[in-house]
Amino acid sequence: MAGTALGDGYLLLALIAGSGTGVGDLRLAVVLGTALGTLGWNAVLLGAVLAYLVAAPAAFTRLVHRGEDSMAFGPYLVAGALSALLLASL
Q1: Integer angstrom CA distances of residue 49 from 24, 52, 56, 83, 86
Q2: Distance (Å) of CA 11 to CA 7, 14, 26, 36, 59
Q3: CA-to-CA distance for 41 and 24, rounded, in angstroms?
Q4: Coil vs helix vs strand at 53
Q5: The whole model's pTM is what?
Q6: Which of 54, 55, 47, 53 is nearest to 28 (CA)?
Q7: Is 80:52 a contact under the CB 8 Å cutoff?
């Protein structure tokens, strides 16, 4: 259920905001949401938020210094999920 909720959230974000979220990101979000869902809803929410917090400095740097407006988000999804996993186990 958590995987579906997280995947639906990213799908809604992609449809409404017109973000560059790809199908691979949506699929990865479902898998990571399912995995984090075994730890509870707090871990799912933490994983989703941490992905954006980890990606923000890199996105800002790419935008300012290189003028690029797109980047792969999958590695940041994984980093957010792993960070949530580590924090949930404390």
Answers
A1: 19, 5, 11, 10, 14
A2: 6, 5, 7, 18, 20
A3: 23
A4: helix
A5: 0.88
A6: 47
A7: yes
Distance spanning both ends of the chain, measured CA to CA: 24
Q: Which of 82, 10, 12 is nearest to 46 (CA)?
A: 82
Contact yes or no for 39/85 (Cβ under 8 A): yes
Q: How far apart are CA 60 and CA 6, in angstroms?
A: 24
What one-letter code names the amino acid at 77? L
Tokens of 89: 């186990």
pLDDT in tens, 18-70: 767 888 888 999 999 999 999 999 999 999 999 999 999 999 998 898 877 78
Residue 38 DSSP class: T
pLDDT band at 79 (very low <50, low <70, confident <90, very high): very high
